[in-house]
Prior knowledge:
The longest helix is centred in the N-terminal third of the chain and has 17 residues, at about 30-45. The protein has helices spanning about 15, 30-45, 60-75, 100-105, 125-140, 155-165; strands spanning about 5-10, 55-60, 80, 150-155, 185-190, 195-205. β5 (about 185-190) and β6 form a beta hairpin. It has a six-stranded mixed β-sheet with strand order 3-2-4-1-5-6, sandwiched between helices. The protein starts with a strand and ends in a 5-residue tail after the last strand. By secondary structure, it is of the alpha/beta class. It is about 30% helix and about 15% strand.
Amino acid sequence: MPKTIYVVTHPEASHHVERLVGGWYDSDLTANGRRHARLIGRVLRTRIPSDVPAELFSSDSLRARRTAEVIGESLGTDVITDPRLREKSYGIADGRPQSWLDARFVPPPRSGERLVHDEGIPAAETKAGFAARVFAAMAEITAGDATHQVIVTHGFTLTFIIAAWIGMPLSAVGVVNFRAEPGSISTLHEDDYFHNRQLSVLAERVTSYD
């Protein structure tokens, strides 16, 4: 059977409007974010056949979990939380003003070793550690036979979800980036003949009910 995965980046959260570093800081959805989550849930309901059970996975961060719960209500599906789907941790910068991080952040070099690059922030995750945990989560999520799955996650995490899906080696993810705004839907598909995997739609911004 073919497989389709809808990857949702959580909508607007309080750290966005307060200009704080997200990461593992447990911000909640704003009122706008909650409305957007309901819209995403309705849209996914039109795309996933009602007679087909869908699996719903989510980062355990509050803002992602709230989004997933709303989607779950639309799909009639329980949420399976997985901390490996969290955003990258920025260590002691999590929850601080974005300007604080910007003033101290050391960007990676253009070439050379980027995966274990020290960004200058104590206790921050390396890109290598971040990618490895997302790859591990995706290996388990995609191993099952479900034909329709939804993953609720974060903007940066989306890059490694896609990389894992298309079989990109971990050694190559140091330079990859798939950009997505909050409240987007990316569609991943695997056909049932060649079993080729594709990124069908990247970061679709849901603004109206289709």
